[in-house]
Design goal:
Radius of gyration of chain B: 26 Å
Largest sheet of chain A: none
Order of helices and strands of chain A: HHHHHHHHHHHHHHHHH
Structural class of chain B: alpha+beta
Order of helices and strands of chain B: EHEHHHEHE
Number of helices of chain B: 5
Number of strands of chain B: 4
Largest sheet of chain B: 4 strands, antiparallel
Structural class of chain A: mainly alpha
Radius of gyration of chain A: 23 Å
Strand content of chain B: 5-15%
Distance between the termini of chain A: 18 Å
Shape of chain A: globular
Oligomer: heterodimer
Number of strands of chain A: 0
Amino acid sequence: MHQEAAIREPLILGEKTYGEITDDVMASVVGKASKSWWIAFGISAVMALWGVGCILYLLGTGVGTWGLNKTVGWAWDITNFVWWVGIGHAGTLISAVLLLFRQKWRMAINRSAEAMTIFAVMMAAVWPGIHMGRIWLAYFVFPLPNQFGSLWVNFNSPLLWDVFAISTYFSVSLVFWYIGLIPDFATIRDKVTQAVPKKVYSLLSFGWTGNAKAWNRFEEISLVLAGLATPLVFSVHSIVSMDFATSVIPGWHTTIFPPYFVSGAVFSGFAMVQTLLIIMRKVMHLENYITRKHIEYMNIVIIVTGSIVGVAYLTELFISWYSGVEYEAYAFINRATGPYWWAYWAMMTCNVISPQVFWFKKLRTNIMFTFFMSIVVNIGMWFERFVIIVTSLHRDYLPSSWTMFHPTFVDIGCFIGTIGIFFVLFLLFARFFPVLPLNELKTILKSSGEQYKTKVEEH
Amino acid sequence: MTDNKTIYATYDDDMVLLAGAKELVSNGVYIRDVFSPFPIHGLDPVIGIKQTRLAICAFIYGLIGLTLALCGMYYFMIVDWPMNIGGKPNDFFYQNIPAFVPISFEFTVLLAAHGMALTYFIRNWTLPGVKPRNPYPYTTDDKFVMEIHPSDSGITVDELTEKLKTTGSILIEER
């Protein structure tokens, strides 16, 4: 059996038995939804409907309803795309990279973090889709034989790499998540008494039996999929960054982009996990599983990745001067002192300065403060993408075409809409799915559970 | 007397079951299967379950993915419709290899992961609509069950029940 040092803080608090873990997680599935759930669901649904309306209006009328112009051809759309993809990085990082590193604390959070990843990547995929203008021609991004002679998609283009990267990342994350869910669906199936839920969970659990050979295969596939998903996590945002880095726009044309984007993605992903889980553990009474220690661990990841992002910002700034390229230097001077100075300094404050407060143990173990900081980081990371995209474009090589970007109500509506859809999906997940991986948590109960730890200490 | 009876022995602790299984096996009892709510580490070698070969399958699927991606890109970009992008060399496959790395990697992972997942579902026979085969509903919650056919090891039901009682089983049932 796996042994753990007694001085490590327990990961499961309270005197839990295997059965109680099941009951605690099942409570939300079998019980009635609370009032706060309905309020949150209602607000999210209204936001989602507004967004869907804006998207339909956009598709019916054209991309001209956004505030894009000839100079600023990418603005909120691609900002939102990169923001959502970034958020979608924490889930698979937690469940794959931390699995390979044998970090047991991932077990309380990986299920919901991965759900978040899947929903965030779905929201990300909306943006390039509607940005095409004619979404009904979206199948053109795939290398399909077509009626225009043998014209193929360009395999040398990072935009096409992105198509492959995002679709692979999404589908592999989905399968990884679902394979982990199956034994837990089986637990619910065998526990619920009402007829309809029993039918639904029977279908979802694929007839899982839990015999020894199945578990042997389960552990193998979890490990191999984690191994496959780990380079995937790093490749996806590297490729997203190449959409920018391989162009010749000052401010985009830098080799630092791939690692800088990946750490930024992990940074914002963990912030979003904090935002969601701090509320979820309270509303669903999961404080014994998602403990203060878990929140502290995540804050440590935030401070590490936040510092990497900070170093990247400063390196970029330094290199723009050191390279001796006037255009490059101007792009950065313009970011900090030009008409978009407020976006640049919002980004700097939220991403570089504020995470440094987590060096203080008092602050990184303070739950309310962590929640506040997670929102700050989310805002900061949105501004990072806005700064990279809009401030690099709005003053191009030709001063006569210099302009500003003004979002229209459709820009804002579509963005709010994706936030709404994301929360609708997450709330449905929290209501009907096992939000903690039961089968994994039960394996660490004896090594990391509180009552077993105290027993070890007594002897 | 040996017959086709099946004995199900329930335990309420994974470690008790593991110790019991070791004892039974050393006494020559063949354990058909164990049902548990989570993987019991160290059980597989005791009851004679071999390590799965799923990982080898994944490797083969990955190789297929890599080959398909490279062949596809060779055909699309070099043979069928070479594109002149800013005058960059595109006459030969090797000149374009660096640009083909990301998609080769992604496609390898795509096929390896999905191929492995499909094989996993079929080998486990876990597919939508399949009926679960666990003997008691509590094996997915907090109990652990051994399935033993006394005829496998040539002993009688009574002999087996006697042996099981010493291992700390909380319920022994015959079906």
